[in-house]
Amino acid sequence: MSERLIKGLPMVDEFLLYIKTQNYSEETVYNYEQDLKQLENFLESEKLDFKALSKQMINQYKAYLVSRERKQPFTGLTAPRKLGASSVNRALSSLRTYVRYLIEMDRPVPLPPDAIKMVKTDKKHGQVAELSELVKLIESPQRLEKDELIGIRNRAMLEVLLATGMRISELISLNKSQLDGTGRLFIRGKGKKERFAYLTDRATHWLELYLAKREDSAPAMFVPLRGRNAGKSVRRISTNYLQEKIKEYREKLRINVPTSAHSLRHGFATYLAENGANPAAIQVLLGHESLDTTTRYVHASDKFAEETHHKYHPVK
Asked: Does 312 participate in catalysis according to the annotation?
């Protein structure tokens, strides 16, 4: 696929093959491929060769990524919206990794990886829906889906997300063999870090109910039941499908706070913290390398902050 679609970058097929051999998820490999295709689109639009990439060109690339002239990686169509800072940084990080690979392979590179600087990200904390709303959300698929098995499967996915705080990519990559019968899932997360994720009793119930109703032998934990991927032995639910379903459920339930799969991870950390969980333990559960990263998730909700203020302020 990459050989046909990405022609202007040296050793790109070898790089993507290398990424695959490092046990990255299919989604991560696809993201690298997409990011490199986006780089190629930029180079073509500027009539540049990869060898001419400079610090100045990197700045132009950043501007391209947030511009309305940006093309979608593989379709070539004008992108519907500008990229946010985190998405820009992912594209820049992919470029860094690619350049490091070329260096490792003793190939000439136009600039050192450290010359590719990230952009500033917004430090504001996103809002998280109230716990009661998150519970209502994860319980909604059975009521909102016409197909019983789809409702059970989607509820199981949402239950697992809120129970474990895992990333959506980790959920999609789960195999049935990772469920060990003790209420734990052994997962390989971001950066190939391995950890246990712990299920609640209710998440275990819905997961086991869903698996009991499965009549296929596919290894994936969550599989599509309709569409072009249904029936394939290597099929998996896509992240886009799950995100769209969460959006659909949220809108039907009239939950005002924007909510995504990541919001369930955010809510997992926030409400554990509000109930007195140790931040270091939350760090382990989330699979964060740094406690600083965890603190971005476990900031208090507005309601909790208000209650704390009323309860503990010394001047009543």
From this structure: no
